[in-house]
Amino acid sequence: MKKAILSIIVLAFGAGIFAQSGDINRLYYTYQGESEVISMYIPGFLCRLAASLGDLEYEEEVLLRSIKSIKLLVVENDAINERVNFVDEINFDEKNSEYVMMLTVHEEDQDVLILGRKKGDCIRDLVIIVGGEENVMVSIKGRLDADMLYALSGITGIEQMKYTKEL
Questions:
Q1: Which one, 27, 46, 66, 103, has the greatest CB density within 10 A?
Q2: In the chain, where do the E strands start and end?
């Protein structure tokens, strides 16, 4: 009986820890393949190949070499965008998550959420979710430090990313 109770506690705790990562994957696999939805998975070896082939700045090359994978999901289907908000779909709860909220922006018709999962001095997962009028999800796995995140703001044009250097 003790083993059964202990097993249930361990499973419940484990489910809470991994729930956020599961929500992000569920979001990707739910909308992947839908009409007018762009879904893209880029493995790390392709990022490293791009780093070695491209005419890049040093910071860009270091950033590409540190990435293990990228998942991208962009909804261009108006019917889906009218009924779905990706920020609401993942139902982020910082208390029960291994992710930390790095930035949140709420406007009239648009929500932006940037989440990170740290290990040591590096961010292992960086997730950018846009919900509302447009729905976009970008998930970057790798070993990103503050300087790389700052470089990422310049590369992507996401101005708010430059503030992550201060975190």
A1: 27
A2: 37-43, 67-75, 100-106, 110-119, 122-132, 135-144
The residue among 69, 92, 84 whose CA lies nearest residue 34 is 84
Give pLDDT tens digits for 104-146: 898 888 999 999 998 888 899 999 999 999 999 999 999 988 7
What are the strands of the beta sheet with 37-43, ordered from one edge?
37-43, 67-75, 135-144, 122-132, 110-119, 100-106
* CA nearest to 123, candidates 97, 100, 93: 100
Q: What share of the chain has pLDDT > 70, as a percent?
A: 76
Helix pair 58-65, 44-53: axis angle to 10 deg: 160
Judged against a pLDDT cut of 80, whether residue 10 lies above it is answered with no
Question: Distance between CA 130 and CA 128 in Å, rounded?
Answer: 7
The pTM (predicted TM-score) of the whole model is 0.76
Q: How far apart are CA 20 and CA 99, in angstroms?
A: 7
Please report which helix (H) or strand (E) contains residue 35, including its range: none
